[in-house]
Each structure stands twice: as structure tokens, then as C-alpha cells.
Design brief:
mainly alpha
Length: 288
């Protein structure tokens, strides 16, 4: 039976986040893999990984576990990732109260981030398609916002084409990945230099998701705009003004932007507003 490790519902004061990826998590991961891949050396895997975790922070622990996955799974990426996909627990449809147990899947994302574009590890074949499918599955259980970034850096056009299809997916975690994963300056993650320099390729994604029914997704759109505003403030101001004005011009009842879009705009501009940028302050007032 596949399972998730026990974990608190939120970060506890005095308890480092890295502890989520501890001995119990490794044992649970080994159990799940062994359940679907009977020859897996769960004991050897656990004994290899656990001693290495001491002194490592959360993301480093994810990479450490991912490297051990590679060592103990078949020496072929497609075979290995298919085993990991078979070991996944059911998807999360909700967006609230998920707790920290879902961080169990950080190593799975780290595995894709490390090896998901490695042709040599995949018999000379580009593993792009299976990697994107794997991220589609993992983001419905945790997030693939970190693992998708090498794909946007190295194979931008192909990856954006997939994200354009995902913006209408029924699962909110998939839709959120489209905006969150493409953020130019996502915290805890490597930057996407091309989008820092020119964010225009991701603007259609933000446009498509600005009216998403889930606050979880709209907040990601706002945060992405906030990232862009650090390098291209006037562009973001123009976008926010167009979202405020465009709805009124295009709508027969001339009601203008919804309260949800107005909230998104205020959230997106909070940092330049705190710095006293007048145009940002004016737009936030108009979005009240």
C-alpha cells in the first residue's frame, strides 16, 4: 500500500523545514518504490541516504535523495521515472490545508530537475516528453515549479508549448505550475535569465490565467507580475492598467475589472508601492 509520511500541517516554530525530509520520509519513499518495483534494494537505499542527510538543508536533502534514487533504480531514465510515477499516491484536487506531507515529493522533482534532460542517461534519446508528463503528475501532488525551470532554460519553445496546453487543465495545481514555474525570479530556484531580460514569452500565460477561478492560481499570476516588475516596472504598470481598463472597453455592461482581478493587481504592485513609486500607488488606488 502506497503512503505518505506523517508530517505537521504547517512549519513549526523551532523545527527546521529540512526535517520533513528525514529518516521517516526516506523509509516511506523506499517502501513505495519497493511496492511497485519488487527488486528495489530498500534497505541499501535507506542505509545509503540517511547518514548523508545530517547537515544538509531542505533542497540539498532533496538532491541527495534524488542522486540515491538514480543509483538504486534502473540505469535508464525512462525506466526509472516510470517506476517513480507508479509509486505516486493519489492526486490533490484541493488547494488548501495540504500540510507539509506533500513535500515528500521534493526528491522526485529534484530527480527530474537533475536528470530529466539527460540523453546519455536515457539511452541517447531526449527524455523531454516523459519528463514533462512526470512533472504534470508530480505537480498535482506537490509542485514541479523548481524542476520545470531547466526545461524553460534549455528548451524554452517546447516547454512553453506544453504550458500553453496546461493553462486550461481542470487541476488547479497544473494551471498554477504554468505561471509559478515560469516566474523569472522564483524564490529558492534558479533564475530564468531569458525571462528576466525579456518576459514577453510568458505574458500570454499570465493573461490567460488572470481570471482563474482559484485564488491559488491568481496569486501566482500576481507574484509572477511582481517578479517582472523588478526589472520591467513600466511594462507591468501598462499591463495592470490594461487589465483595469480593458474589461470595461470589451464588456457590454461596462463593469470593468472584477474584484478578483483588482486584488491580483494590488498584490502584484505591492513592492513598488512600498517603495513609493507613484504610478504603482495610483494603479493600486484605482484597483480598490
Amino acid at each position: 500500500m502506497l503512503k505518505l509520511p506523517k508530517a505537521p500541517s504547517s512549519i513549526q516554530k523551532g523545527t527546521p523545514l529540512k526535517n520533513v525530509l528525514g529518516q521517516e520520509t526516506v523509509a516511506c519513499l523506499a517502501h513505495n518504490i519497493k511496492t511497485v518495483y519488487s527488486v528495489f534494494d530498500s534497505k541499501g537505499f535507506t542505509q545509503t541516504v540517511v547518514p548523508q542527510l545530517e547537515g544538509l538543508e531542505f533542497k540539498a536533502r532533496g538532491y541527495c535523495i534524488a542522486d540515491a534514487m538514480k543509483a538504486f533504480l534502473p540505469d535508464n531514465y525512462t525506466q526509472a521515472i516510470n517506476i517513480l510515477l507508479a509509486s505516486l499516491t493519489p492526486v490533490n484536487d484541493g488547494t488548501e490545508d495540504l500540510g507539509l506531507a506533500v513535500m515528500f515529493y521534493q526528491p522526485h522533482g529534484s530527480f527530474i530537475e537533475r536528470y530529466g534532460l539527460d540523453k546519455q542517461y536515457n539511452g541517447g534519446k531526449n527524455p523531454f516528453n516523459i519528463s514533462m508528463q512526470a512533472q504534470y503528475e508530480i505537480t498535482q501532488r506537490f509542485t514541479a515549479e523548481f524542476s520545470i525551470r531547466p526545461f524553460l532554460i534549455q528548451q524554452q519553445k517546447k516547454t512553453l508549448a506544453v504550458l500553453q496546453k496546461w493553462i486550461t487543465d481542470p487541476n488547479p495545481h497544473v494551471r498554477r505550475l504554468c505561471s509559478e514555474g515560469a516566474r523569472p525570479r522564483l524564490p529558492w530556484a534558479q533564475r530564468i535569465p531569458a525571462f528576466v531580460k525579456d518576459p514577453s514569452p510568458i505574458l500570454p500565460i499570465l493573461e490567460a490565467l488572470k481570471n482563474d477561478p482559484e485564488l491559488y492560481v491568481r496569486r501566482s499570476v500576481a507574484n509572477s507580475l511582481g517578479d517582472i516588475a523588478k526589472d520591467h516596472p513600466q511594462l507591468v504598470f501598462d499591463i495592470c492598467e490594461s487589465w483595469l481598463e480593458g474589461s470595461a472597453k470589451q464588456s457590454a455592461n461596462r463593469e470593468g475589472a472584477t474584484k478578483e482581478v483588482k486584488w491580483l493587481i494590488r498584490h502584484a504592485l505591492r513592492h513598488p508601492a512600498k517603495k513609493g513609486v507613484q504610478r504603482a500607488l495610483d494603479i493600486r488606488v484605482a484597483a480598490k
